[in-house]
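Q: Two folds, back to back.
A: First:
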Amino acid sequence: GCPRALDLGAGAGVSTQLLWKNGFRRITAVDISRTAWDDNVDEAKLPPGVTFTQANDNAFLESFRAAATPEPFDLVLVNYAINENKALEFAQTLLAEGGQLLAPVNQQRDFWFAQEFRLMDRSGSVLWRQAEVGTWAVTFQPDFTAPNCQGQWCPQFRGADSLSTLNLKGK
């Protein structure tokens, strides 16, 4: 069937657009705030199969578990730093068989200023890891609602060539 993706921390929809450009046609975008999404995404023009849910990751996880027939994802993309335990929980709970999770994971338990990108399978095995993925360096943003955006998806960190330099195959 059509590949299904979960975009956690979708913000202004940049990562959602990236997923669409990479062939995902059923995308659930989730963010704790509607502000960036509403300011940058015209929901009337969204392609069928793309939806937005306002929730934090714990609330989304609870609703996923509570669903009568939860439909797992082929890809879970996490757009904010998480610790290893949460990465493992997301992978084991949200992924379909053969699915993968891509997330910036703390290199030390609850140390928020040193992450690396990790690609994990449903069992939680790390398929590869690296500190940067093209120009998409992992940068912690403590307050994603602040007007001075400092997160990894913010334009000043992405640069105009970010879509052409994104490297998901590892080094």
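A: Second:
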Amino acid sequence: MFGYHAYNKNIRNIVVLFGTVFNDISVKRLKSDGTTDREFKIPIAYGPSEKFLSKLNQQKTITLPRMSFEITDYAYDPVRKLQTTKKHKKVKSVTQLNTIYNPVPYDFNITLSIMVKYSDDGTQILEQILPYFTPEFQVTMNEMSTMGIKRDIPIILTGVTTEDSYEGDFITRRALIHTLTFTVKGHIYGRTVDQGIIREVDVNLGANMNDRKDVNIDIKPDPLTADADDDFGFTTTITDL
């Protein structure tokens, strides 16, 4: 549409970030004496809960408990708008910089579904999640790894609901579903552009005053092999014309 291709995987990284936050939750099954019989991690995958419940009812190889999540919608956030013309820079080579403009702030609304067969499994999972969201939990993310940009991303819990899908049919398997809704405060970046590094400034000043001469001012980095992000100072040479 705009004559160039730009794909920074910003939306994909939001999905990976969200899934990573919830990929280490486990459930314990206890014996009658209170000791642990077995403990297992809860699998999590991207997709609507209806897809997994459909497979469950078709007696396919899927078991509960498990979790799923999906992005439900996106919304531009004008409150977090940054200065449009500011650029981020990273050294690419001795003579070039990578530059990119400030990103556009977007809210990603994500639904997390916790599907369990037993009520105790659901409460165990919830109690490993809810205490961390008050209602905000921040995670550091490499927003643009190619540019070295890291940012703390807020994940905000906006709601919790519970639904029991059991309707009295002895054939249909029971599923207790806890639905948690979140808003992830992310950003979307545009394309990166190569920009040359200014390594020398050559200025001719023409004063034409009674007691002054025209001069040439030549400013170079010192030493000449200095990189774009080095702090070596400059040498200045002033020559009468």
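Q: And?
A: Helices lie at 10-21, 49-57, 119-129.
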